[in-house]
Amino acid sequence: MGGNFLDYHGSKVSCMSDPKSQDFVEIQAQWVSVRSRIRQKIGDAQFKSWIKQIKLTNFQDKKVLLSVNSNFLKTRITEQYLDIIKSYWLVQNLKIDDIEIIVIKNDESKKNLGNTQNKSKDISLTESKSNDLFNSISSDLDSRFTFNNFIVGKPNELAFAAARRVSETKDVPFNPLFLYGGVGLGKTHLMHAIAHEIKARNPLRRVIYMSAEKFMYHFIKALRFKNTVAFKEQFRNVDVLMIDDVQFISGKDSTQEEFFHTFNALIDQNKQLIISADKSPQDLEGIEERMRSRLGWGLVADIHPLSYELRLGILQAKEEKLSARISPNILEFLAHKITSNVRELEGALNRLAAFSSLVGREINLDMVQDLLKDLLRSSQKKVNIEEIQKKVSQHFNIKMSDMSSSRRSRTVARPRQVAMYLSKNLTSRSLPEIGRRFGNRDHTTVIHAVRKVEELRSKDLSFDEDVQLLIRMLES
Ligand code: ADP
Ligand code: MG
Fold it and tell me: What is the CATH number of domain 385-475?
């Protein structure tokens, strides 16, 4: 034992396996690819905070040993990412029996490595008693994710109504219920809310909620131990099965095939299935055609990007629960500036509240700009007025020159108002300056345009979609 090898980051760690052994080289290569898949999935920031801290330490007796340098990291990573790591890894290499995360404090790495074998396992792929699988297979639910805490508006009302319906009735109104929408728009929240509601109404009903990764992991494990029958058996007594983020099943052929069978079997047994994804069934990539069409058989409900009103509503509701007070004009400011998703809105609000209670006084706009520099900058791409005018003209099929012409017919006036609205929201230009760029119009005309477009966006869903689309095009 005791060879040294260069780990993925280039620093030296000691390990028990022979670093040059073919097995270990393969394991290293797999780790690189597992990491890059996870990075794609969770984004750079999360990746840096968690996954990047993990070192591949050993591979012996079909067991992969990963290490981090603190208990804190170990706990968080085990809770949040171990399932993902395992499922991605198993997809590449079915011969792995176990993946374990251990703590190795930087300077004691050598001392500790000798007896890792005696450490108690916190996870184990090998223990698989099917009678306790039922309890262990469903993930924990967040107690804050209830229907009561969910703010409803045009963009999410269909998804909300469908979720309520499913949780209020014992029959299966539509199967599957397919919820989709971008990151941070409330899919997981709604699924947890369904589970809470069903259990509150009837504690005996059995609900399983899990991520698609977790499903995959359990499934692949069953394949390995050749007990897919037992795997399916677990679901026999389930009333409601929810699989979150199903896009992560895409592309893994054997898993997909089996998922499809399990899925069909459950629907045949009239179990309620609830699936979420970031795209509609038709747009999911790497999913077999028949699976795709089957997913769309029930009710497909999408959550649209949030409107200004809904963002403001959410902020107001969350503000009420805070101990610190944040003034209404600041909430409006946030609702204007932070458009991407609810998670960022919440983050911004919490940061302001924390600061406010720290300094013991109310927050003003200047402080907000300062405290939220990073968030505001990222949601404010460098778009200029000309670009906006060009994209909007193309989109509504009018001439670019009509942006500054004096024509007032609706077909050109409305797009012009949209362009003014976007100029106000996506650039840092002042109202008078925007007016000047639109054929020397007065700043009050710009204000009117902004109000008009806001009003239309809240009333007319397809108009709102147009605007959302333009924003997305301009910002990307
Ligand atoms: P997704 O699963 O779609 O990525 P989540 O359900 O995890 O998004 O939501 C992200 C965060 O935003 C959660 O804290 C959730 O409670 C909150 N959230 C999302 N939509 C709403 C809403 N309509 N009302 C209140 N909170 C919401
Ligand atoms: Mg989610």
Answer: 1.10.1750.10
Question: Dihedral of the CA atoms 129, 130, 132, 133 (nearest 10)?
Answer: 110
Using alpha carbons, select from 438, 400, 399 the residue that is nearest to residue 417. 438
CATH number of 157-303: 3.40.50.300
**What span, in angstroms and rounded, lies between the C-alpha atoms of 31 and 58?**
12
Ligand 1 neighbourhood includes 183 CB (under 6 angstroms): yes
Identity (one letter) of the amino acid at 268?
Answer: D
CA distance 294 to 387: 42
Nearest CA to ligand 1 atom 5: 186
CA distances from 275 to 162, 201, 272 (A): 12, 21, 10
Compute CA distances 147 → 278, 355, 428, whole Å: 21, 29, 38
Q: Quick one: pLDDT at residue 476?
A: 62
* pLDDT score for 419: 97
- For residue 213, the CA-to-ligand 2 centroid distance in Å is 12
First-to-last CA distance in the chain? 52
| 314 CB within 6 A, ligand 1 | yes
Work out whether strand 177-181 and strand 299-303 pair parallel, antiparallel, or are unpaired: parallel
User: Helix or strand or coil: residue 474?
Assistant: helix
* Fold that domain 308-380 belongs to in CATH: Helicase, Ruva Protein; domain 3 (1.10.8)
Over the chain (476 residues), what is each successive 10-residue block's mean pLDDT?
36 45 77 86 86 88 88 89 83 78 67 39 32 55 93 95 93 93 94 94 89 82 77 80 87 75 85 93 84 89 92 94 88 89 90 84 85 72 86 93 93 96 88 94 94 92 87 76
* Closest ligand 1 atom number to CA of residue 144: 16
| Rounded alpha-carbon distances, angstroms, from residue 415 to 114, 382, 393, 450 | 70, 21, 7, 12
Alpha helices by DSSP H, listed for 285-341, are 289-295, 308-321, 328-337
pLDDT of residue 449: 96
C-beta of 91 in contact with ligand 1 (< 6 A)? no
Cα–Cα distance for residue pair 332/123, rounded to 1 Å: 47
> pTM of whole model > 0.85?
no
Write down the CATH number for the domain with range 4-122.
3.30.300.180
Give residue limits of the domains in the chain. 4-122, 157-303, 308-380, 385-475
